[in-house]
Amino acid sequence: MIFKSVGEGRPYPEHGLSHREWAQIPPRQVRLDTLITTKAVLDLHSLLAKDSTFYGDLFPHVVQWRGELYLEDGLHRALRAALHQRSVLHARVLDVDAPTGPPADGE
Questions:
Q1: Where are the alpha helices (DSSP H) in 1-107?
Q2: Helix, strand, or coil here: 88?
Q3: Dihedral angle at the C-alpha atoms of 54, 56, 58, 61, nearest 10 degrees?
Q4: How many angstroms separate the most distant Cα atoms in the chain?
Q5: Sign of the C-alpha dihedral computed for residues 83, 38, 45 and 27 taken in this order
Q6: What does pTM read for this prediction?
Q7: What pLDDT score does 86 carry?
């Protein structure tokens, strides 16, 4: 098993992060078998292209929501890591579960 699950779509709320905001999140190691994909289909041209990360972020984007890790962007990078028999990859992880500010009065 490569991934925890293969999903279709993003079950988490829209986060609205730009590419620049994603770049501010430091990459960390993530185990492939803890990821749930948000795409069930991959174009082989993307997987096999030598310059697949030339125009994008070098690190996949992962969203942590309700204790699960969703692979939002970088499926081809994750599969390439698996094909090289690596069980982890470096990814930028956005924790949507984390509190975003001080609690409101009465909470």
A1: 19-23, 44-48, 75-83
A2: strand
A3: -160
A4: 54
A5: negative
A6: 0.81
A7: 95
